[in-house]
């Protein structure tokens, strides 16, 4: 019996080794009689767009998960990002149902200690950073109905993406349509959940576009947990010539209401699990946020060996928060965040060894006007804090890959960042 178990283990291990081989004729001849297995099927490679060398997921020297469109748009509630990221190993999401606390994401433990929002993980949308230079990221302005797939890098990615000790999540929105289409949907569920979506797109000569609008509202299972938001996304692509193109992405998000019911102790849960914490109701705990975003990406195949890519982005965010206490319990934040990136990719061979080389520069600038006021049971009291916070980041990176043969590659990466922080008191 033990020998049979060992034989089965060896056979399964051999099949796994064959499954990782890149030579398809060797993979087909996996039967002992030498005949081709009729159950054999070769999947198309998945290209990882966030990787500077634009490689396939099997060749990227990192743990990468690719999440397809069905996880975002088919049979999903589409209220929080964690719905689509459930299949990713090592990823854990919290606060998915508390829209005033924002989603928190941890990859292999990194990000679990963030008091709010997402830290320690780089968040990108179509390669444009949602993570600000201070390392913070919110995803309340992202509508899953507009996302077609995602790439999740698990593990240290700082050499590639800077402030990303735990990994990176790149959300890729829908591509502009080649034909005219219209799409509308209505989703409803328990506890007052409703979501209305409208999507349209078309191609006019060398210009293609897609527009997505949605309205989401939810009363919630518990008292004092209702929310409401409106999100508009637009994406356009202009083919300048066969070798170059430019993409524009605009986004508007407005969430006027997101109440915070607070936490309960075990006795309160047993008495009434739907109740809200009394001080949260007393001080009207919750938040409201509006955000506008504009980005542009330019790509050009300069020569067969050189590819150039550059992007610019601008974000304006207005945030108001009421916390369940009096002193400084109301927060007002006005944020302006902008930046850009330049990258050049060279492919060639040296001493008959093929290589890919990418190098680039990126920068980000963030200005936060942060004020706090006393929370007089929901109304604004005296100002207790007024400060201008400035964050600047400039980074340079190089990524080199040598393809020794079909089964062996070497990758080298280095990155240097300069971070500047400044706080100016405006209260005194």
UniProtKB/TrEMBL annotation:
Protein name, per record: TonB-dependent receptor plug domain-containing protein
Keywords, sorted A to Z: Cell outer membrane, Ion transport, Iron, Iron transport, Membrane, Signal, Transmembrane, Transport
GO cellular component, one term: cell outer membrane
Membrane topology: Multi-pass membrane protein
Compartment(s): Cell outer membrane
Entry keyword Signal: yes
TonB-dependent receptor plug domain segment(s): 58-167
InterPro entries per record: Beta-barrel_TonB_sf, Plug_dom, Plug_dom_sf, TonB-dep_rcpt-like
A Pfam family that the UniProt record links to this protein: Plug
Protein's organism: marine metagenome
GO molecular function, one term: siderophore uptake transmembrane transporter activity
Organism phylogeny: unclassified sequences, metagenomes, ecological metagenomes
